[in-house]
Amino acid sequence: MQLDVFLKKVSINHALNMLLWHIAEAGIEIAALIKQGALAGVTEKMTSTNVQGETQMQLDIRSHEVALAQLRASAVVAAVLSEEEEKPTMLETIDAPFLVSMDPLDGSSNLAINGVVGSIFSVLPNTGVSTLGEQAFLQPGQDQRAAAYIMYGPATLLVLSIGQGTHIFTLDHHSQAFVLTQQTVTVPEETSEFAINASNQRYWQAAVQRYIGECLQGKEGPRARDFNMRWCASMVMDVHRILTRGGVFLYPHDNKQPVKAGRLRLLYEANPMSLLVTQAGGESITGQGDVLALQPTDCHQRVPVLLGSKQEIQRLRDYHQQIHPQATE
Ligand code: F6P
Ligand code: MN
Questions:
Q1: Range of the domain at 89
Q2: CA nearest ligand 1 atom 16, residue
Q3: Is 233 touching ligand 1 by the criterion CB < 6 Å?
Q4: What band does 3 get if pLDDT is binned at 50, 70 and 90?
Q5: Which residues share a beta bridge with 77?
Q6: Closest ligand relative to 199 C-alpha
Q7: Closest ligand 1 atom, CA of 200?
Q8: How far is the CA of 11 from the centre of ligand 2 (A)?
Q9: For residue range 180-219, what is the model confidence (pLDDT) as tens digits?
Q10: What value does the mean pLDDT take over residues 300-310?
């Protein structure tokens, strides 16, 4: 079943369906650029940095432009917040029903090694951006109307939730259409696989030290079984693995740069991924509560993210409560 047919079947919100169709079109265009590799200049670095101080790749900018053009063309988006721009872009359709925040090219450092990258989108209701300005984006993740990522891997995938489960579509390169290939994904509750950037271990807090320490002890430790580890340096790819075969993905609070509590951005990484994972039966917490319940305070705010299989995230929640009792759940 093609994406447009699926959307018509499951949702009567025509404006939302239109928006998701344009997000998919952006994914198809970006996929074509990525496929061309160095021939499309995708591996070239810019001299500029983004609002986070990260060096931009040429494709970071191109992806931002492609996605913005598609969102504008949908005529149902009032404003767009992007990782690549400090301030949201206000569109001509300022009273349209939706706001979109996006990471147009997640994991872009992987481009240099021909690794997997993705695009992430979060759809919020427009609660009055014409008067509130950028404040209108500061809505908790539980208010999202939809979330999606596109994964530019060996196959190009669109993973989507409108709050009725999480579904996977595969791009048919012949017809240039996304086709439903897995309806209602379920994250296995139990797992023996974790993903964390272990080079930061000395900066982690005690709860995460304990959790990972116990996994590493394997059969001989308190978990009484061996664990496996993966780290892709691309949130889209790590989250996709968790959606398809379970596990946990942790980018916890660390003390490396105390001003940055976590690495991942709440409005265009943590929130949309948390909606997709929880809609597939997984959980997503900061260590101090559910990611989706967090009231944002800044458009580019960073948060700790611990997400994945239910039982493991429950264990991490317990360890945080026991070890950091000042944390409020
Ligand atoms: O966008 C942030 C991001 O690139 C994620 O895609 C990824 O999970 C993480 O940062 C990688 O972090 P690190 O550079 O510490 O491996
Ligand atoms: Mn990113």
A1: 3-182
A2: 233
A3: yes
A4: very high
A5: 98
A6: 1
A7: 15
A8: 29
A9: 999 999 999 889 999 999 999 999 999 999 999 999 999 9
A10: 97
Q: Indicate whether 218 and 161 sit together in one domain.
A: no
Instruction: Write down the pLDDT at residue 62.
Output: 92
Distance from the alpha carbon of residue 305 to the mean position of ligand 1, in angstroms:
12
| Bridge pairing between strands 248-251 and 305-308 | antiparallel
Q: Which atom of ligand 1 is nearest to the CA of 264?
A: 2
263 Cβ below 6 A of ligand 1: yes
Ligand 1 contacts CB of residue 283 (under 6 A)? no
Both tokens assigned to 232: 């892709």
Q: Report whether residue 106 contacts ligand 1, using a CB cutoff of 6 Å.
A: yes
Ligand 1 neighbour 257 (Cβ under 6 A): no
182, 202, 222 - which closes a domain: 182
Q: Is the per-residue pLDDT at 68 higher than 90?
A: yes
Query: In sequence order, which residues have a C-beta less than 8 Å from that of residue 304 and are 6 or more positions away?
Result: 251, 252, 253, 261, 262, 264, 286, 287
With contact defined as beta carbons under 8 Å apart, do 253 and 292 qualify?
no
Computed over every residue of the chain, the mean pLDDT equals 94
Residue 58 and residue 127 share a domain: yes
**Is the CB of 108 inside a 6 Å radius of any atom of ligand 1?**
no
- Of 113, 148, 182, the position where a domain reaches its end is 182
**DSSP at 269:** I
pLDDT in the model for residue 328: 47
Distance of CA 75 from the midpoint of ligand 1 (Å): 32
Q: How confident is the model at residue 327 (pLDDT cuts 50, 70, 90)?
A: low
99 contacts: CB under 8 Å, gap ≥ 6: 77, 78, 79, 80, 81, 88, 123, 124, 125, 126, 129, 136, 137
Question: Does the structure show a pLDDT above 60 at 80?
Answer: yes
Cβ distance 97 to 41 under 8 Å? no
pLDDT level of residue 326 (50, 70, 90 thresholds) = low
Whether 266 is in a domain gets the answer yes
Helix (H) or strand (E) holding 179: strand 177-182
Q: Do 185 and 167 meet the contact criterion of CB atoms below 8 Å apart?
A: yes
The predicted pLDDT at position 170 comes to: 98
